[in-house]
Amino acid sequence: MKRRVVVTGLGALTPIGNNVEDSWQGILNHQCGIDFIQKFDTTHMKVKVAGELKNFEATDYLDKKDIRKMDPFIQYGLIASHEAIKDAKLDVETIDHDRFGVVVSSGIGGLGSIEENHNRALKKGFDRVSPYFIPMTISNLAAGQIAIAFKAQGLATCPVTACAGGTNAIGDAFRNIRDGYLDVALAGGCEASITPLGIGGFTSMKALSESSDPKCASIPFDKERNGFVMGEGAGILVLEELEHAKKRGAPIYCEMVGYGVSCDAYHMTAPAPEGIGGAKAMIHALKDASIKASQIDYINAHGTSTPMNDKLETAAIKKAFGEHAQKLAVSSTKGNTGHCLGAAGGIEGVFCVKALDDNFIPATINYQNFDEECDLDIVANSGRKQELHYVMSNSLGFGGHNASIIFKKYGEE
């Protein structure tokens, strides 16, 4: 018999807040976290804007000696994990460490550390790079450092599936708990790719918006959309087996009930025609949850603000939901945060849990121009108060990776 899985803790660092409360308040206030890049000089670059963390100092959370050993993506994941553990009121000393896992994704890993150490090597020689260069750089070290911090000695892994990574991480952790391998897991994603090379690379492949107006750069489903905006941060959930959570009197936000995946197996960056791969992931998630398509109230879409993604995700939703596609609410919070790559699914998972908790559907902010190819019920500009029972979160990544997860209001049968 499959075990039930609940969400008992949340942690987040986003361009609209350095914790869950402030980030969610940013959603409620329709705040845009996109602005002109401050991390480096963009004078000679086409892309000028990104979703950077604001007023963030790692030293407010971590010791300086630890910071020296960690790329920012690891710092972000660790800080959000601390918040999630505290929120879940989880005493990590008293739980079974062998049944406590970490599944945390990063799409790119320590890109900034690669740039910094390569520059140092060119000046001083390659044998003079930081002794921490490799563990600062490789993508799995966020999961590794989090596991060390909390003595999580069960599964500790890092799905590297580009923009689907955070959602795959939550889904993989869910399955491990549901199927009896773990009792508790930290799951989500973290990313810190707002660097000259990161921005330059995505600019070169024509993926980023080159808008000079921060409020018109990330505009998912809008007819004038012209590329995504890079974001950064982390989103972490504590997933827990229901009886384990009840036994320790844990706060329960909601239940997680479904996870679906697929691969387009079509192109290294472009989605498959008609959104067929994304549709399969949603259909698999619905089947996994043993619910009808008509029971989904809201989808937090991948909604990247690229012409191709939003058009084909719309097609995928229609294919997966049939007539109900016109009745369910859809929005993308990437208008608030930009696209946080491997962290996106984690951050958006946090937003979905909060949406269920507050019965509030986040808006797709800065939406102005209707696109007939994105003709769903796009919740535009103002969030919507609505009784929610089931919500879905989608993530679609380069390489054709598609992932869909479903949360359910706890206590409803």
From TrEMBL:
<dbReference type="Pfam" id="PF02801">
    <property type="entry name" value="Ketoacyl-synt_C"/>
</dbReference>
<feature type="active site" description="For beta-ketoacyl synthase activity">
    <location>
        <position position="163"/>
    </location>
</feature>
<dbReference type="InterPro" id="IPR016039">
    <property type="entry name" value="Thiolase-like"/>
</dbReference>
<dbReference type="GO" id="GO:0004315">
    <property type="term" value="F:3-oxoacyl-[acyl-carrier-protein] synthase activity"/>
</dbReference>
<keyword id="KW-0012">Acyltransferase</keyword>
<keyword id="KW-0275">Fatty acid biosynthesis</keyword>
<comment type="similarity">
    <text>Belongs to the thiolase-like superfamily. Beta-ketoacyl-ACP synthases family.</text>
</comment>
<dbReference type="Pfam" id="PF00109">
    <property type="entry name" value="ketoacyl-synt"/>
</dbReference>
<dbReference type="GO" id="GO:0006633">
    <property type="term" value="P:fatty acid biosynthetic process"/>
</dbReference>
<dbReference type="InterPro" id="IPR000794">
    <property type="entry name" value="Beta-ketoacyl_synthase"/>
</dbReference>
<keyword id="KW-0443">Lipid metabolism</keyword>
<keyword id="KW-0808">Transferase</keyword>
<dbReference type="InterPro" id="IPR017568">
    <property type="entry name" value="3-oxoacyl-ACP_synth-2"/>
</dbReference>
<dbReference type="InterPro" id="IPR020841">
    <property type="entry name" value="PKS_Beta-ketoAc_synthase_dom"/>
</dbReference>
<comment type="function">
    <text>Involved in the type II fatty acid elongation cycle. Catalyzes the elongation of a wide range of acyl-ACP by the addition of two carbons from malonyl-ACP to an acyl acceptor. Can efficiently catalyze the conversion of palmitoleoyl-ACP (cis-hexadec-9-enoyl-ACP) to cis-vaccenoyl-ACP (cis-octadec-11-enoyl-ACP), an essential step in the thermal regulation of fatty acid composition.</text>
</comment>
<comment type="pathway">
    <text>Lipid metabolism; fatty acid biosynthesis.</text>
</comment>
<dbReference type="GO" id="GO:0005829">
    <property type="term" value="C:cytosol"/>
</dbReference>
<dbReference type="InterPro" id="IPR014030">
    <property type="entry name" value="Ketoacyl_synth_N"/>
</dbReference>
<keyword id="KW-0444">Lipid biosynthesis</keyword>
<protein>
    <recommendedName>
        <fullName>3-oxoacyl-[acyl-carrier-protein] synthase 2</fullName>
        <ecNumber>2.3.1.179</ecNumber>
    </recommendedName>
</protein>
<feature type="domain" description="Ketosynthase family 3 (KS3)">
    <location>
        <begin position="2"/>
        <end position="409"/>
    </location>
</feature>
<keyword id="KW-0276">Fatty acid metabolism</keyword>
<dbReference type="InterPro" id="IPR014031">
    <property type="entry name" value="Ketoacyl_synth_C"/>
</dbReference>
